[in-house]
Amino acid sequence: MSARPGPARTRLIALRYSRADESAPRVVAKGEGELARSLLALAETHGVPVRADADLVALLSALELGDEIPGELYHAVAVLLAELARCNAAGAAED
Questions:
Q1: For residue 1, is pLDDT > 60?
Q2: What class does CATH assign to 11-94?
Q3: Does residue 10 contact residue 32 with C-beta atoms inside 8 Å?
Q4: How far, CA to CA in Å, does 91 sit from each of 48, 81, 85, 87?
Q5: By the 8 A CB rule, do 77 and 25 touch?
Q6: Domain ranges of the chain
Q7: Cβ burial, residue 64 (10 Å; 0-12/13-18/19+)
Q8: How far is 9 from 2, CA to CA, in rounded Å?
Q9: Which residues make Cβ contacts (< 8 Å) with residue 10, sequence separation at least 6?
Q10: What is the pLDDT of residues 20-64, one digit of tens each?
C-alpha cells in the first residue's frame, strides 16, 4: 500500500521592486494556506498581477519579510518581472 500525498498547500510570496528606491526586489508578504488565499484575493481585488511558480516560491520561502532576493535568483525573478511588465502593458493598451 502506498500513501497518497495530500492536496498541495497554497503558498504565496509577494515581491516589490522599484529601480529608483531598491537595489533588488524584496519580500513584502508571504503566507501559506488561508493567509495565502486571502493575499491572493486581495491582489486580485487591487489588480496586482500574480504568477504561479511553485519552484520559485519554494526558493523564496527561505527568505524573511524585508529580505532582498539573493543574487542566485536574480535571473528567475527578472524573467517573472518582465512577464508581469508585459501583462501590465497589455492591460494598459486595452484601457
A1: no
A2: alpha beta
A3: yes
A4: 12, 15, 10, 6
A5: yes
A6: 11-94
A7: exposed
A8: 20
A9: 32, 33, 36, 37, 40
A10: 888 899 999 999 999 999 999 999 999 888 888 889 999 999 999
Instruction: Tell me the C-alpha to C-alpha distance, in Å, between residue 13 and each of 65, 81, 92, 93.
Output: 9, 14, 25, 28
Rounded Cα distance between 1 and 11, Å, is 29
60-86: per-residue pLDDT in tens? 999 999 999 999 999 999 898 888 788
On whether the CB atoms of residues 4 and 13 are closer than 8 A, the answer is: no
Q: Which pTM does this prediction carry?
A: 0.78
Query: From the CB of residue 84, how many other CB atoms can be counted at a distance below 10 Å?
Result: 15
Could you tell me the three cell numbers for 49? 498581477
| Contacts for 9 with CB less than 8 Å, ≥ 6 apart | 32, 33
Quickly tell me which residue has 526558493 as its cell. 59
